[in-house]
User: Fold this.
Amino acid sequence: MANRIRLAACIAAGTVSFVASSFSVSAIAASASAAPVKAEQVCATCHGKDGSSPIDPSYPRLAGQHQDYLRRALLDYQGGARKNAIMAAQAKLLSKQEVNELAAYYSQLPGQLGIRR
Ligand code: HEC
Assistant:
């Protein structure tokens, strides 16, 4: 009987530590930038998988663009200072953190927009 209780306690402890470890894994994942996933799942549809091969010439390249420019553009679409129906709809779905992370992400991708110094 005592053995059975000990076993049950072990299993319970095991479950607790498993739950605890899966929590810490997701906490680590949440602290890393979500931009690569978002970029691939959403933005790539129009701006291309690499941020540099848009589906239409009127769709800008993002890869290699300055971070503060990309950030400003997204914030302006959100606030209405820059008007474009397609991008306004996209930008409104983004949190401030996602805007920052996406701007950082695309600015770091190799692009054809300028010479890196
Ligand atoms: C349905 C197509 C579509 C999707 C999806 C889309 N975009 Fe765009 N994006 C556009 C178009 C079209 C423009 C050009 C709009 C304009 O003329 O202002 C644009 C412009 C931009 C600009 C301004 C670039 C510049 O050079 O001025 C940024 C930044 C941008 N998009 C980021 C994103 C990000 C980040 C995502 C994903 C969250 C995204 N876009 C998803 C179509 C799209």
